[in-house]
Amino acid sequence: MLAGLYNICNSEPPSQKGGSFLYQVKHFLIMAKKTVPHFNSLQEFYPYYLQEHLNPVSRRLHFTGTALVMLVLILAVVTQTWWLLWFIPLVGYGFAWVGHAFFERNKPATFTYPFYSLASDFLLFRDLLIGKEKFKHLR
């Protein structure tokens, strides 16, 4: 399916390249093939994670997704409505992947380092909340 989507994106007329949705998807698929350096610890990984999350819109999307994950988890536990837990990956990954595909234009680290990436999402959330990191990063 992804190969078919990639072929559709390649058939896009040159006059539309740069801003169209298909061009954005094509670029995301190309970036998904980018190799990620090897990391042995979360301490090594987190600076790389921050470099992959410099766009202010992407940072806001990640922050929103992480906040919604915590809200859904709390709501599910307090109300004992366990089917709400199915929404956790949807809100967490949904917001983050939109940030990567359309604003950062890079590959989410989730695919290579799922646990470091998840932990880093919460570290970034905390750092944004306490002001250690800024929503608008100076490049």
Task: Report the structural category.
Answer: mainly alpha
Q: Classify the helix fraction into a percent range.
A: 55-70%
Q: What is the end-to-end distance?
A: 36 Å
Strand content: under 5%
* Uncertain stretches of 5 or more adjacent residues: 1-17
Largest sheet descriptor = none
Number of strands: 0
General form: globular
Architecture overview:
- This protein is mainly alpha-helical and 139 residues long.
- The chain has two domains: 1-33, no CATH class; 41-130, no CATH class.
- 64% of the residues lie in helices and 0% in strands.
- The protein is built from six helices and no strands.
- It has helices at residues 2-10, 21-31, 42-51, 56-79, 87-104, 114-130.
- It starts with a helix and ends in a 9-residue tail after the last helix.
- The relative contact order is 0.15.
Draw up the topology in text.
Blueprint: H1 2-10, H2 21-31, H3 42-51, H4 56-79, H5 87-104, H6 114-130
Helix pairs in contact: 1-2, 3-6, 4-5, 4-6
Short description:
The protein contains 6 helices and no strands.
